[in-house]
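A favour, since you know our structure tokens better than I do. What I am after is a single protein written out in full by you. Could you add the entry underneath, on a fresh line?


***
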Amino acid sequence: MRVFLKPDEAETESGDLLEAYRDSIHPLRGRWRADLWFVRQVAGYILRTGAVNLRNGVLAGLTLCVLTTAFSVLRYPSLLAGPQEPKFLVWIVVGVLLYGCVAVRWTHPATPEDTLILRLGTRWGIAIGAVWIASLTSANLVIPHAFWAGIGFLLAFVAFALQFVPGAHLAIKTGKLRSGLRAGFWSGLISGLMVFLALAAIGYLCAFVPGLPGAEIPSANHAYTAAEFERLNVTDALGGAFAFLFAGCPVFGVIGGTVVGWAGIRLERTGHSH
């Protein structure tokens, strides 16, 4: 509640809930039913705060990413069996915590420019994420070489190109590279979260639904068990999902806001000087 509600509201409401929990709910229902009641009450307060804002959306997306990863590791413990995997896990934890801190601290606009950056970054991020998801779905869940699979590759090119647009757009619009960088980062973070969840779902579909074109084909020289085939596809999907979340989407968004934005600002200033 302290994450999702305003500090004064969270303090008041959590105090009332704890008092009700101690004085009436726990004595009447017992520990587990009282805990379930408390969770439902907290969820209700969060839902009643109104439309999901950027901070809540990012935190919810990060929570789903963590739960998906934890479920995968618990289901396939061998995901962490290699010598490098624990190091990757540490970097993943650091990246998630960093994104969470950014969402908590920097999603409250203090100026009209902040509002513009967050609004346009969010809109562009959702649009880019939707195009990436359409591309990945077409390429992995439909018959290879069919019409929609070809469109999937075209959509991938469009999604890649769009990643440069939000930051460049804001940099040129405001005349500030910093604004473009921030807008590119936000669009990349939001689209990265969307793609992560979509790729994780695609990986599990490929692991458990026979015959999908996106399934990893085991080596002909090794007789894979069903569990090994599942692990192979889940691992491949999660690897791509983390690449989108921590590298692809945010990095290209920031590049668009700096390099492309700088070029756009210079061209615009050159045009005005003439």
